TrEMBL record, chains A, C:
Keywords: Molybdenum cofactor biosynthesis. Gene3D superfamilies: Molybdopterin biosynthesis MoaE subunit. Signal peptide: none annotated. The keyword NADP does not apply. It catalyses: 2 [molybdopterin-synthase sulfur-carrier protein]-C-terminal-Gly-aminoethanethioate + cyclic pyranopterin phosphate + H2O = molybdopterin + 2 [molybdopterin-synthase sulfur-carrier protein]-C-terminal Gly-Gly + 2 H(+). GO terms for biological process: Mo-molybdopterin cofactor biosynthetic process. Its EC number is 2.8.1.12. It is an enzyme of class 2 (transferase). The keyword Thylakoid does not apply. Pfam families: MoaE (PF02391). GO terms for molecular function: molybdopterin synthase activity. This is Molybdopterin synthase catalytic subunit. Belongs to the MoaE family.
From TrEMBL, chains B, D:
NCBIfam families: moaD. SUPFAM superfamilies: MoaD/ThiS. It comes from the Bacteria. InterPro entries: Beta-grasp_dom_sf, Mopterin_synth/thiamin_S_b, ThiS/MoaD-like. Pfam families: ThiS. This is Molybdopterin synthase subunit MoaD.
């Protein structure tokens, strides 16, 4: 199973876990990203490239499935305005053995950060600024090549 | 040819999408940026620092020196920051 | 928050996730182990060393918290008889940044496999046998030293 | 001194726990295993292959050559297989 969703609505974590378990035998690894209130951020807005984003995420999911023999992958990414504490992204992987699930999960979130067309804008008390790409994120994605 | 813009590139250009008809001398994405910037205004401002720009041609991420070769949609945007 | 539970009852994954989210800012990584139906296993039984198990898991959680600056760790491990598809173990970590949460999660499940007193017995059609420790698990735990 | 056994060690010994009173000559965990095995029966069977045994003294995992030094509880078991 490959499941890719890009949506403005909040998502149901337990429903996503259930889907992975239904396809999983062995181990399930997940990563959930939450909006941080860095230095007083009160709104985080996510913009994306409709259609292209979904294709990029599906490509990453397919690469991970082949590389780690996954039985299931879910990637859910929210777009639009969000508040601190809300979930931005969920990546879940299922595999027969734990190392495959854990590595694939780390791979997907690292690659997603540099290879999927999303852009973040932080607001602090009405002052908005576009988030710059972090060198650390580029390095994290590069270690998988 | 359809142009699409995202994030601060969109804000500086002043629109998220537009139709353009570049001349035959515009071969690469970089040529296209030069030609659009020559119109002045938002485009010149948005495309000033090339190292801060990324592009996709028909949905595929490409370097700025890539040929357009009959592309239907060209996207210009800053480095991505999702996740 | 350090939460360690060893119990015979099934556990509620979404409740565990909610607890981590309540303490988390940034990223939450989880690993859930499910009973595999390897070669026709129909029952897996987990035995443990009451009291000592909980202490061993708490020690691992404290080590991980210090090493990766975690904001929360949950380890839930079932004991007693289980069927294929059921959850055996849940490890969840929360941290400001994803690499810390993901690495700590992998660390905890690797170390748990060699450093916490649990023993598995598989049954296939009434024939039971104790599971032998895997060399791969010993190697996986050793890479963190 | 309380002995506790787990997994196939427990099954071979024939009990999960027992009280023992080893003589002063029993200094290490390995000495204790020798002394218990000398009783024959389940203990001898359970403790036959030392490389397959692990021990904990008062809840701390220790090598078999560790001293007992007044331990209240000694656990003998196979390598662990949780997770």
């Amino acid at each position: 199973m490959i499941r890719v969703l890009v949506q403005t609505e909040p998502f149901d974590l337990s429903a996503e876990m259930m889907r992975l378990e239904a396809e999983g035998t062995g181990g399930i690894a997940t990563f959930t990203g939450l909006v941080r209130a860095d230095d007083g951020v009160d709104v985080l807005e996510l913009e994306h490239y409709p259609g292209v984003t979904e294709r990029a995420l599906t490509d990453l999911a397919q690469e991970a499935t082949a590389r780690w023999s996954l039985t299931a992958v879910s990637i859910v990414h929210r777009v639009g305005p969000m508040r601190p504490g809300e979930r931005i992204v969920f990546v879940g992987t299922a595999a027969a053995h734990r190392a495959a699930a854990l590595e694939a999960c780390a791979y997907l979130i690292d690659r997603l950060k540099t290879d999927a067309p999303f852009w973040k804008r932080e607001s602090r008390g009405g002052q908005a600024r576009w988030v710059e790409q972090r060198t650390g994120d580029v390095d994290a994605a590069a270690r998988w090549r | 040819m359809k142009m699409v813009y995202f994030a601060w590139v969109r804000e500086r250009v002043g629109t998220g999408a537009e139709e353009v008809a570049p001349p035959a001398s515009v071969v690469t994405v970089a040529d296209l940026l030069d030609w659009l910037a020559a119109h002045g205004g938002g485009h010149a401002d948005a495309f000033g620092e090339r190292e801060r720009l990324r592009a996709a041609v028909d949905g595929a991420f490409v370097p700025l020196d890539s040929p357009l070769s009959g592309a239907a949609e060209v996207a210009i945007f800053p480095p991505v920051t999702g996740g």
